[in-house]
């Protein structure tokens, strides 16, 4: 028996439409959640509702100018800033407008941050520190927002010192064609707006630090903004002596240690380098269970800062490589001692952790100015190692050991013709770094001709003093290290 069964759909057309809509809404909701999560993770901390450490605040700074050795001129430049923050009414009576911003510029490690802290400490002002890189963001408005936040915080804490380290990260020169729509330009513009918006009674000074003043945008360093520029250079002999005394204050020194003599051996070292020397010397003394820091420890510390630690395992160095290194360093020594009349406290053919097969520690003569002849002789000193290799081992057997020497010699020759106006062909010109390129055929040819000419003179000079070259090299092969007294005997000085 057959049964006819009729099956009816359980859902109407309206139900199908409703289910489709609900399902689509669910998918859309899930997609939105994922998108919002990813966007939230991509944003900077301050834009996710989290705390963001964009700058550091300190109210009671215990650093004073007495803690900053050397830099007498820089400290003098800041004295009126201190007086203004302490007693602004005295200046207002005379209609004096104190500088809104100070640029501290100079090589790394010379104490720019320490000077800014000492300024705040002397003036009893809050110290709010940040870095230019904190304002560099790819997200629209983030950099400008952080600038506003920084200055807003300073107004609450006034009198205050805002310190922006590495300001070139945010205040570098803008392109000639203009880059007003870029995020970096908006951030820089916001910084300019905030500085222009200072009122005379706000008692806020902005101090910025940079290694390259010439890289900053002109709008940033004009009058009314960062209008006071303070050079913080490498310390001279007396300043190095004062810095060493500061860093040796709490360290037990042996009676034989003469810090003034140490200062003579640390030409071109920054304050940070000198701090490192005393710290490393103390570590060496502790390792050897000495009760006091001796000259030997300080000597090892200087060598470590300049060239790195001596390698203990030298089993992979062949006798030929050792010989090449000895003549290479002897070449540098002969030029330094005989031609340039420089001090050479130490020559070594022991490889170091910084990749040097050996090194010649030279203390150049400290002078405010150098003549063209002196600069060319310094280039000769850099080329002395390569010249000695060619004389002893032949042109086909020279090594790549002079690569760093060649880089420095090329830079020095380039500076001579493009900065100092000492080129016979280029004449009295001086370019900034963006205008200098070795792709320029005229500059390249002039640089090459100077180096070739000096190299030939270096070869001739070492050939003339080949007996002294041999004496230094053989002594190095025998003892690996020679000090200045031994060199003077070998070179009959």
Q: Describe it for me?
A:
The chain has 493 residues and is α/β, with parallel strands linked by helices. The chain folds into 4 domains: 21-47; 56-231, Rossmann fold; 237-307, Helicase, Ruva Protein, domain 3 (Orthogonal Bundle); 319-490, Peptidase M41 (Methane Monooxygenase Hydroxylase, Chain G, domain 1, Up-down Bundle), CATH 1.20.58. The chain has 17 helices and 9 strands. Helix 8 crosses helix 10 and helix 14 packs across helix 15. The protein is globular and about 100 Å long. Residues 1-8, 39-52 and 176-181 have low confidence and may be disordered.
Keywords:
six-stranded mixed sheet, Rossmann fold, 4 domains, alpha/beta, disordered N terminus, 17 helices, 50% helix, single chain, zinc ion binding, 493 residues
Unreliable stretches = 1-8, 39-52, 176-181
User: What is the total number of structural domains?
Assistant: 4
Number of helices: 17
* CATH superfamily grouping of the largest domain: P-loop containing nucleotide triphosphate hydrolases
The count of strands amounts to 9
Order of helices and strands: HEHHEHEHEHHEEHHHHHEEHHHHEH
CATH architecture of the largest domain: 3-Layer(aba) Sandwich
**Separation, N- and C-terminal Cα atoms:** 132 Å
Coarse shape: globular
Cα radius of gyration in angstroms: 32 Å
Which CATH class of the largest domain? Alpha Beta
* CATH fold description of the largest domain: Rossmann fold
List the strand order in the largest sheet. 1-3-4-5-2-6
Nearest-integer average pLDDT: 83
Binding site for Zn(2+): 328, 332, 405
Cofactor: Zn(2+)
Transmembrane segments: 17-35
Subunit structure: Homohexamer.
């Amino acid at each position: 028996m057959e049964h006819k069964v009729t099956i009816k759909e359980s859902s109407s057309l309206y139900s199908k439409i409703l289910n489709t809509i609900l399902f689509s809404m669910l998918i859309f909701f899930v997609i939105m959640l994922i998108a919002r999560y990813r966007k939230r993770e991509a944003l900077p901390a301050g834009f996710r509702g989290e705390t963001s450490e964009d700058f550091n605040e300190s109210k009671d700074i215990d650093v004073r100018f007495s803690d900053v050795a050397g830099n007498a001129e820089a400290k003098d430049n800041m004295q009126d800033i201190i007086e203004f923050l302490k007693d602004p009414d005295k200046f207002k009576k005379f209609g004096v407008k104190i500088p809104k911003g100070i640029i501290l510029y100079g090589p790394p490690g010379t104490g720019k941050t320490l000077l800014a802290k000492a300024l705040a400490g002397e003036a009893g002002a809050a110290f709010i520190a940040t870095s230019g890189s904190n304002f560099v963001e790819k997200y629209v408005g983030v950099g400008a927002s952080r600038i506003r936040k920084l200055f807003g915080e300073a107004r609450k804490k006034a009198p205050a010192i805002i310190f922006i380290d590495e300001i070139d990260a945010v205040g570098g020169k803008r392109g000639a064609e203009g880059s007003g729509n870029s995020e970096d330009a908006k951030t820089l513009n916001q910084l300019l707006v905030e500085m222009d918006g200072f009122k005379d009674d706000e008692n806020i000074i902005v101090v910025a630090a940079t290694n390259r003043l010439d890289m900053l945008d002109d709008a940033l360093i004009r009058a009314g903004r960062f209008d006071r520029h303070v050079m913080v250079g490498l310390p001279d002999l007396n300043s190095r002596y004062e810095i060493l005394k500061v860093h040796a204050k709490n360290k037990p020194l042996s009676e034989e240690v003469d810090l003034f003599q140490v200062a003579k051996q640390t030409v071109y070292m920054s304050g940070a380098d000198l701090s490192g020397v005393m710290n490393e010397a103390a570590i060496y003394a502790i390792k050897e269970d000495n009760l006091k820091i001796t000259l030997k420890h300080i000597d090892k510390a200087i060598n470590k800062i300049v060239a790195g630690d001596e390698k203990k395992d030298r089993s992979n160095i062949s006798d030929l490589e050792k010989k090449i290194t000895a003549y290479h360093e002897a070449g540098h020594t002969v030029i330094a001692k005989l031609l340039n009349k420089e001090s050479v406290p130490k020559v070594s053919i022991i490889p170091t952790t910084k990749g040097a097969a050996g090194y010649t520690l030279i203390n150049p003569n400290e002078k405010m100015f150098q003549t063209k002849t002196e600069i060319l002789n310094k280039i000769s000193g850099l080329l002395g190692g390569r010249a000695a290799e060619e004389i002893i081992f032949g042109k086909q057997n020279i090594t790549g050991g002079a690569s760093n020497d060649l880089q420095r010699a090329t830079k020095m020759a380039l500076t001579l013709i493009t900065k100092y106006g000492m080129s016979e062909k280029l004449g009295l010109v001086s370019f900034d770094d963006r205008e200098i390129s070795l792709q320029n055929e005229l500059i390249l040819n002039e640089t090459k001709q100077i180096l070739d000419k000096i190299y030939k003179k270096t070869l001739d000079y070492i050939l003339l003093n080949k007996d002294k070259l041999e004496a230094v090299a053989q002594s190095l092969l025998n003892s690996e290290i020679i000090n200045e007294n031994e060199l003077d005997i070998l070179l009959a000085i």
